[in-house]
Task: inverse folding
């Protein structure tokens, strides 16, 4: 029931139920509201308290729940934004708003995506790196505070700059995490993108080109390279190109672009030889090798392992030592940290015995490898002598399972046996040195060979 009350003078401000009233010099009339119910409710001009029974439990804050980040999208992102005269201050602000919304949609956080940012203008400028802001609030504030630079649209220089400097561990790049570069271009770039795009691909960076406001037919004559979108991206398969008609319509593109960036299986350029291969070491532990030379073999293999990004989602290594018998030293999934894997490799204890390389190849094929994509499984055999058993059939069977074999011979290892075990072409998969001290010279050639085999098969 509503009751009219007398007016008031010199009304003092008050607060009730989250509502703040203003102070007034006079008030002609006032009201109060009463309701006969088990739970009394009052609305008056004085301070009152609302009592609630059986209050529902408070839902957890969405913002707090997302501060850890999206664990299903653990990628490192370099945002390359357009800060040229072509975009201008007004559209630059719209671009910042778009990037802010994209970062929020991606759910950037310590255990989710990490984001850094480069501005493309006459000269590229890194505004912040991957490790500067891993908390959403800080990141969004940093984006909003970006200052417009002006100048040419040198997108190629910006891609080159980000490819060279952005994804190192010193700058916050995470080992084994996909590298993604999102390049926003208003209209078209002023420079050539070829060199920057090539370096990005060789570095395992997934370049996405987001073109906003494509050149009109009348403007095409001013575009230096009309195929810049196709040339710059990781792969010209449509997945890495994204077009937006205008900066005023970007909001509706935030979600679909974020979803595409988080499709990890589609990030084809992440799969480089350095973070995608499984390398098995088959190590001769026969009596002819000796303890000191065996240590040199392990140092040689550790040098190969150091060249690859060993992690749970990256490259893997495993090792088998053999004499007449075989011993699994560690498997591909035993160590997901490079330092731990190399330490385990260097601590292998020398067996001492005969030489049965054929049986060892069969053992390693079964115990070290599982079927995977082509050009992913590699077996490096190091031996110093002739095998007492057949090596041809086991090697062919391993190759039929998709394993690429490199034969490394030392001292008295017969050239015929080495070539019989090696994959084709034999000359590039067979290496020989007279002395164990010469093994380390083979490291660069082996790493290049593995990457070449990977590239040819992928």
Result:
């Amino acid at each position: 029931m509503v009751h009219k009350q007398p007016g008031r003078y010199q009304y003092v401000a008050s607060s009730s139920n989250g509502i703040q009233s203003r102070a007034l010099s006079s008030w002609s009339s006032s009201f109060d509201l009463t309701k006969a119910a088990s739970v009394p409710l009052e609305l008056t001009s004085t301070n009152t308290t609302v009592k609630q029974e059986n209050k529902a439990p408070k839902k957890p804050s969405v913002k707090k729940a997302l501060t850890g980040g999206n664990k299903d999208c653990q990628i490192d992102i370099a945002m390359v934004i357009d800060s040229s005269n072509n975009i201008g201050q007004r559209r630059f602000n719209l671009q910042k708003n778009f990037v802010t919304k994209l970062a929020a949609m991606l759910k950037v956080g310590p255990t989710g995506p990490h984001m850094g940012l480069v501005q493309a203008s006459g000269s590229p400028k890194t505004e912040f790196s991957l490790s500067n802001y891993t908390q959403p609030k800080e990141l969004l504030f940093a984006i909003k505070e970006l200052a417009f630079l002006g100048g040419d649209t040198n997108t190629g220089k910006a891609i080159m700059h980000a490819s060279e400097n952005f994804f190192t561990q010193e700058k916050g790049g995470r080992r084994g995490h996909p590298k993604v570069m999102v390049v926003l271009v208003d209209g078209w770039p002023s420079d050539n993108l070829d060199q920057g795009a090539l370096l990005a691909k060789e570095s395992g960076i997934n370049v996405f080109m987001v073109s906003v406001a494509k050149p009109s037919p009348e403007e095409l004559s001013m575009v230096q390279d009309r195929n810049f979108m196709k040339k710059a991206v990781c792969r010209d398969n449509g997945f890495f190109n994204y077009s937006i008609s205008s900066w005023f319509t970007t909001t509706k593109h935030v979600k679909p672009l974020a979803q595409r960036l988080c499709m990890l299986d589609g990030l084809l350029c992440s799969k480089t030889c350095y973070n995608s291969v499984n390398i098995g070491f088959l190590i001769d532990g026969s009596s002819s090798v000796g303890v000191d030379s065996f240590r040199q073999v392990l140092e040689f293999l550790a040098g190969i392992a150091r060249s690859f990004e060993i992690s749970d989602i990256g490259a893997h290594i495993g090792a088998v030592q053999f004499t007449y018998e075989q011993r699994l030293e560690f498997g591909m999934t035993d160590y997901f940290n490079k330092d731990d894997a190399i330490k385990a490799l260097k601590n292998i204890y020398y067996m001492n015995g005969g030489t049965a390389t054929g049986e060892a190849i069969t053992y390693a094929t079964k115990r070290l490898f599982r079927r995977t994509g082509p050009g992913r499984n590699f077996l490096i055999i190091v031996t110093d002598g002739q095998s007492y058993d057949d090596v041809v059939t086991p090697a062919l069977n391993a190759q039929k399972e998709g394993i690429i074999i490199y034969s490394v011979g030392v001292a008295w290892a017969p050239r015929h046996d080495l070539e019989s075990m090696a994959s084709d072409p034999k000359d590039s998969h067979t290496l020989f040195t007279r002395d164990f001290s010469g093994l380390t010279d083979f490291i660069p050639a082996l790493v290049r060979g593995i990457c070449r085999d990977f590239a040819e098969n992928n």
About this structure: Residues 35-53, 55-66 have pLDDT under 50 and may be disordered. The longest strand covers residues 2-11. Residues 339 and 449 are 23 Å apart (CA to CA).
